[in-house]
Amino acid sequence: MIKKEISSRILTVAPHYIKTLGGISQVVSVYSNMYEEFNVVASTRDGSLIDRFIQTISGLYTFFRFILSKNIKIVHIHGATKGSFWRKAIFIYLSKIFNKKVIYHIHGANYKTFFYKHPKTITKVIQKCDLIICLSESWKSFFEEVTHPKRCIVLNNIIPLPTLFPDHHIPQKECNFLFLGRLGKRKGVYDLLEVLRDHKTYYKGRIKLFLGGDGEIEQVQKCIKEYGLEEIVKYIGWITGEKKIELLNKSDVYILPSYSEGLPISILEAMSYKLPIISTNVGGIPEVVFNDQNGYLITPGDQPALKICIDKVLISETLRKKMGENSYTLSQKHFPYEIEQKLTTIYTELLKK
User: Fold this and answer.
1) 4-59: per-residue pLDDT in tens?
2) pLDDT, position 320
3) Domain Glycosyl transferase family spans what residues (predicted)?
């Protein structure tokens, strides 16, 4: 627990972690339990354009109320690309006007593409911050090279402690594969469906793929029907809470063949539930998933390689168990007590300056 003498001086700015889906909200939700006093401003939420606008205005009001009435010294801002960046830029500039230290905690998968559309503006905003937090060494190198921040560090994404059932991963007739994330091309869901379509006779009765998430739901469901995959693939919606825990316990393999990523919370959570991982060599993923150790990485869009990896874990329960144990070991550095200690050090050092 981050003690009150420190946490009372920290203001977090992030999407509403109850009314917003996605990785940042999951991170902030776990963070909220680590502070003796958690001061937070919700900058946006899911919903209509009007809902999001009202939340931003409400967030600005709450921000000023904290800044003017409390002994806030550090503003810890969680942000990503596109609208998230522009909203957070407002909070960054306002924080500096009130002479506060600013931590900009960068999430999101498409930052390179976004940066090269607005290089001067993004560089200017980032250089206003006292500390940039990245999710992986690869992203740290990128931001240091192109924006030259005052200081840039890596802080591992945080995940809650797993709730492992005594009977988790008991072998079934079918091998349960799990995909969680926004359904669409970026996460590689269509590549996955096409591989299953092209080999459905072989996979029928051997694999059950559970697809969880929002995004292009109708298009994905249309593909499942047109490809004749109803007996292999099941769409289960956006999964949270107890249902998510149950699903992670009964799954055998986690699969996320993305085209771009930061460092997906879903992969880290799956690792903590002792799942082997099949994913791609993008973003920070190669820093947590290692070929032949706790999973397999392919080049995005390489469907033949994706099939080979699926087959390797499908045919060997022993391999899945070995990789799953390695995943669990590697995931431990993302558990709350590890991140809490590092955050405490980060805050303490900034408060001394």
Assistant:
1) 999 999 999 999 998 888 888 989 999 999 999 999 999 999 999 999 999 999 99
2) 96
3) 165-328
pTM here is 0.86
Q: Which homologous superfamily is 4-158+335-352 in?
A: Glycogen Phosphorylase B; (3.40.50.2000)
Q: Report how far apart, in Å, the C-alpha atoms of 96 and of each of 30, 67, 99 are.
A: 27, 11, 5
**Is there a contact between 72 and 39 (Cβ–Cβ < 8 Å)?**
yes
Which residues have a Cβ under 8 Å from the Cβ of 149 and sit 6 or more positions away? 126, 127, 129, 131, 132, 143
Query: Fold for domain 175-333?
Result: Rossmann fold (3.40.50)
Q: Which helix (H) or strand (E) holds 337?
A: helix 336-352
Report the alpha-carbon angle 8-11-17, nearest 5. 115
Distance CA 267, CA 255 (A): 8
Report strand pairing: 101-106 vs 131-134.
parallel
Domain boundaries, the chain: 4-158+335-352, 175-333
**Residue 4 — φ and ψ, nearest 5°?**
-60, -35
Tell me the percentage of the chain whose pLDDT exceeds 90: 88
Q: Is the pLDDT of residue 169 over 70?
A: no
Cβ count near 253 (within 10 Å)? 25
| Burial call 32-61: b when 16+ CB within 10 Å, e when fewer | eebbeebbbbbbbbeeeeeebeebbeebbe
Distance CA(101)–CA(29), nearest Å, equals 23
Task: Give pLDDT, residue 173.
Answer: 84
